[in-house]
Queue: 2 jobs
Job 1
Amino acid sequence: MLGKTAGGLTWMFRYLERSENIARLVEAGFRMGLTHSDDASEWESILATAAVRDAYLEHNEAYDVPAIVDFLLRDPANPTSVLSVVEAARNNARLVRTAITREVWEAVNECWITLHDLLARPVRSADLPETLGTIRQKSSLVRGALHGTMLRNDIFNFSRAGTFLERADNTCRILDVKYYILLPSVSFVGSTIDNVQWETILRSASAQRAFRWLYGGETRPSAIADFLIFDRRMPRSLAFCVEKLCSNLTYLEAEYDQKMPSLEMTLAFREKLQRLDIDEVFKIGLHEFLQSCIADNNALAHQIEQDYRFTE
Amino acid sequence: MSQPPDCFDEMSGAGDATRAPYRGYSGWLEEQDHKLLKKKASDAEAFFRRTGITFNVYGSDEATERLIPFDIVPRIIGAGEWRKLSAGIEQRVRAINAFLHDIYHNQEILRAGKIPTQLITQNDAFLPKMIGVSPPGGVYTHIVGVDLVRTGENEFFVLEDNARTPSGVSYMLENRETMMQMFPELFTRVRVRPVSSYPEALRRSLTACAPPCAGDRPVAAVLTPGIFNSAYFEHAFLADQMGAELVEGRDLRVVDGRIAMRTTRGYTPIDVLYRRVDDDFLDPLNFNPESMLGVPGIFDIYRAGGITIANAPGAGIADDKAIYSYMPDIVEFYTGKKPLLKNVDTLRCSEPDSLNYVLDHLSELVVKEVHGSGGYGMLVGPAASKKELAAFRIKLMEKPSNYIAQPTLALSTCPILTRTGLAPRHVDLRPFVLVSPDRINITPGGLTRVALKKGSLVVNSSQGGGTKDTWVLEG
């Protein structure tokens, strides 16, 4: 396989994952606006999670909800707006057209066609839930086509690695932006505001149902952090993503019969997570820990790029 | 069905009786409901859009990717007609390869005085660096598209040859695929020769010309300028269908005297490169130094026999419009026989007498730029306004040698499905020819392009043309 193709596959699935993540963030913000008076600071956190707060302020003067939603979903000036990333995903799919099945290509192409139409004009607030649902569904359909039609070979493993690199980064960011409300010291506060914020975090990771199911009615903030970092049953937790990356890179090592630094790094990342539990994380400092994980994940992405010659 | 006067309709011929090749189809068509056909036509469009069979349009902001309109009425060629056509095409393509070999070696045709020497030496499409180079297998044009038009029952003309990187073959294949999906029963009633083996034949043709350094299973790759090229869909399609890698210049480099592609495991040599990049952009060290699309040094490797490039650099001298008017002589010079396929009478505006004639008859002629393509920079006299004629006259007089002129041909028509029923539209045909060291393979049919505007003679997709599935009947 061409190095460029491996890179294209990884990025295609990173971008698709990102489109879904942005939709989830907007949905969490939207839900909060429904149940509580619009709190612009919550939207500010959402922009921070999506790593576009500065970019937003370059183009806008204040935190205005419709403008933020528009920036996150449609703005071509925002390289991580849903519209931008779906276009980038499709361009990468075009680049790797010979590596993917017709089903996967058509799913991406249709994702782009649908969202291009859907996001051609600003989304009315009444249409927002349906639009966000469509964004998530279209990305799921690509994943479904990948699972249903692709050989389990290097192509598949590079694609999956893209998904999990992006997801690990996203989960860390969701937690990091709100780390201060998850600290054990605030666990007894339990004010309504905190409840709302916890809910936002869980929704941003599509984890509210799973969390309630596992923890019953008890909402301890530290449990939320524990769940999203360490619970390997949870498909969006950091531990789950790292575990999957280990298996993708282990496959590639076996397939290519070449020892690669990227696998060493992933194994070390996994070991770090296995060594620690949530209490120790709080001792280190939740924010510091999450920052180190984001850095590890970035370094890993970079190493994979080098090991498999994505670029010259 | 109304019909423009003096025009040969391929379905109804000169009179009202359906021509033989269309009888089977016509019988089926009479049983169909017009509404249902219209629905099928819109299904086809949705299918093309979903599959991403699009081409990129340069210089337009909106909708940079467009569909080429597809018409669901097939263009049908009888078995006997096709036999005659393919004999003519084969003869012409053999002559083109012999001509290229000669031009880059002994230049006997120039010595014999059949073609003015300066027409070759001062032509941008002529690559002096190819002199003395013998491509592996002796093949210059592995893939050729021969553009044909028809004006009567037995009147076929070659409009132009495409000896560089002819495009459109993916549409030939996808059009058939679409027709078979939409009208499976039709194909059980009318026996049509299949086209689906083209990618496999292309692969065999390319690898048959692999250089001596290649192993038992030569590695082929398709070189594309990238995803923003107008024909990118086709490049990806062909690579996919052939099971070849789709590479860009930035994936390739010279490694140990070979051209190698950067894979996830390291650099792997390529034996045959089907390039869809023009000569000028192929190698910044040997040709255009500004090119970002090519591979530095590839031409040196090619000359040393380390890789096969298809089509060979410099092959464009054979399809140059200024050379076109000499094609009958070229065919006769190399095959020793009269050409089976006719050329359109062509006036070279570089010759003073011809220029005067062209200026006097501008409103009757088609005038083309010698190096133009895609229907750009072309004047269709009878369809042009007074203003357009006057503007073109000035351009023509400024640089006469840049133009050739031809009579306006009454191109044959084929019916298309319109909102109100069938209506005749002008068509042309591009058969695709594969050349190997030992044989010439012509896929039955080719790409039919159709001018969708009533009365229009311009079939290019960049100018609002569409395509049709092209059938050659069994028999």
Job 2
Amino acid sequence: MSARFSFSTPSTLRLGVLCVALLALLAAAAGLLRPGDPMAMVGPRGLWPLTDGAFPLGTDQLGRDVAAQLLFGARVSLAVGVGAAAVATLIGVGLGAVAGYFGGVADHLLSRLCDYVQTLPSFLLSMVLVAVLAPSIGSVMLAIGLTSWPEIARLTRAEVLRIRNADWVLAARTMGLGHGHILLNHVLPNGIAPVVAMIAAVVAHAVLVEAALAFLGLGDPNLVSWGAMIGNARPLLRTLWYLMALPGLAIFATVMAFTLLGNGLSERLDPRGAAR
Amino acid sequence: MTLFAFMLRRTLAAAPMVVLMIVVNFLLLKAVPGDLVDVMAGESGIATVEQMADLRARFGLDRSALDQFQAYLSQLLRFDLGFSFRYSRPIADLVLERLPATALLVTVAVLAAVAVGVAAGVLAGRRPGGRFDRTVSVLSSLIFAMPSFWIGLVGIVLFAVHLRWLPIGGYATVGAPGAGWPHAVDVAAHLVLPAATLGLGYAALYARVTRAAVIETSRLDFVRTARAKGISETRVTLRHILRNALLPVVTLSGLKLGSMLGGAVVVETVFSWPGLGRLAFEAVADRDVNLLLSLFLCNSLLVIVMGILVDVSYAALDLRIEVTS
């Protein structure tokens, strides 16, 4: 499948890195740029963006600063995106590497498990998991991570399968090195490149899922989240529609940044796989 | 082997998956903090310890986990999904009541997405790197990066609030005639925005898959043969390339049809569409985990059924695929 054409010129990677770095910087500096509690009512109600220098992006129906909410919301989105991707990577790379390296029963079991998890309706499963575990930033991370690892596992397995009989791996084996050592130091470092690119795509996916969960009221109730901002703005579509539009643009920009990063990485790290 | 026998075999092969799903569903059900009786006691406001113990005994909640699982299984075999205490109704009734609205929404969305996506994919794949191809690829990238509920809300602001072309949400106008042509037109008008919102992402996906398949198929020998025979380019594209490029689209849309309830949750919530997705949202809002898990189980089973149907239609579409394994 050609998931990436056009959006992948030589500068894709640079642009992706730049956008992600900018986002991370904004999220980190949220407290400096807009000090205080983003949930506090600090100004007049329903102030439109670009009308008051004190609140460049306006205020919401309760007089809360929209710019502050967006900045602090970036923290949640990035944290959940990266956290969920970390969960998915740990499970996916771990299982995929073991299955690819040892083959046989382990490989068979992993394939069946991947089939099973990929058959489940993933968004509903995430909803169920968050509802069962009670909504919190940790449960959201876990719920998204637990539903998005099979792709990483399949790719890792394929890469390990390709490398496990390479000359240097056979050499390591004849030297009597242990399986764990060979897998970690000889096989994975050579097969991880395409997986890294996929991890960026998983982050982008996780940001979208987190937004949808928070929109449905399954986010951390104590933290500002872009999806929850949009959910709260729903009754005000006729009047204060910017309250819905701005967080949506923030989500869009974040997903785009990680997509660019992923496309750029896969191009740089795995030129011959560009057609995948 | 006949088609029927093939279906039977395929169904048997899916059986372990179904069992695993039921087990996982049961475990999740048991993982929910607090049981049915806690919920009921909370609802009624007054309950003594004795009453609660009595209720637990009556529902069999005091028995061992294995016994409870057995009861759960026999319950499922009788198509009994349990009882929703929020609605004071059997869950199976709720599901059946909401099913038609979701089926309508999802069917229209998938058909529209396939039509738009395949058309765009064929045109893009005919001239890879051309202007149309680049436009489609940029558009689909943009669509993939937007949350679907946000696309829906933007659609409401644009087409319902400002242009006033379409209704803002719901299934039909309240107070309007409930039958006949006016009703159908009314429902169709209410259907446009939700179906477009739900279908947009799938259209982008089908466009990409079709494009890739068209490019791949165009390189095959039989296409060159067809061209060499002097068949017109349009005919080659429609009869020779598209027909063969359509298989992955069939697979994908069948599988996606099964898992579309996830997307429907968000879209139905945005547009107050009274379907299963909306029911799932209400279950979340009411913390009715029983109901949510039942919907999850129904959807999981639907995905398996769709998988079987896809395999069967595959065998029917492509004569090279032998029905014998």
